[in-house]
Amino acid sequence: MTKKIGFLGLGHMGGPMAANLVAAGYDVHAFDPVRAAQDKARADGATVVAEASAAATDRDLVITMLPNGKLVLDLYAELLPVANPGTLFIDCSTIDVADAKAAAELAVAAGHRALDAPVSGGVAGAAAGTLTFMVGGAEADFADGLAVLEVMGGKVVHCGGSGVGQAAKICNNMLLGISMIGLSEALVLGEKLGLSHQSFFDVVSTASGQSWALTSYCPVPGPVPTSPANNDYRPGFATALMTKDLGLAANALAANGVDGALGALAAQIYARFNQENAGLDFSAIVTEVRNRSNQVGAE
What we know:
The chain is α/β, with parallel strands linked by helices. Strand 1, helix 1 and strand 2 (27-31) form a beta-alpha-beta unit. The mean pLDDT is 95. It has 13 helices and 9 strands. The protein has helices at residues 14-23, 35-43, 52-56, 69-79, 97-109, 122-128, 139-152, 164-192, 197-204, 212-215, 239-255, 261-277, 285-298, and strands at 4-8, 27-31, 47-48, 61-64, 88-91, 113-116, 119-120, 131-136, 153-160. The longest helix has 29 residues, at 164-192.
């Protein structure tokens, strides 16, 4: 069993993930530039190091959870030279497929191994250790990293070669964004027609319009008590992150010649909403639909 792990990026997702590794008995050296994240990781039992490079020194496996591809590539340039030969690098960030492939190529060229392993499941899943990991990379490397990933996730799927894990994540979140917008439009239409949220839920949750967005993450208060709608739309999965992921999906649609009208439109809708609501959960898009509908009705 891999014992020595480096973990870089201790935010809302990375912090709980690192904590679960510590709880499972792994020796975790953790780094994050934010003091609050350092303090939390230290309280969770991780060894907090002062420099990013120290988190990759004398480790068997290094995990990164970062906001974008540029940061991953920049950090790899710092980490790869100090890591032990053959270190397994697992990037759990959600980034462009091209960046994921470039990061893997850099790792291999430096004598290491690499997996892209973005996640789904949000902050609650990170805390509970029930994330879904979508993994790209070589079979042997996947096998070596599986035990560690299973500590942090309830489901780990090897999707294919380098970059394919990111492809799975982008496709999943594009569908989720489209679903949430469609659900929000249907809910607001129901409101206009006199249908209560609970009646809508009771019918649609067991009918052909059923979706995860409705049954697990209902964007209006009441029907699903654990959804962010019942907590003033505190994330959860922030609008800023959904906007980023839909932007990646829109770029991939264009780059690969896919007629993805709904994906492209979802990216535009969330980009507009993100301008003033980046910190709200992405399910708060229902408020945008409602507000803009009221504006139309007043014209």
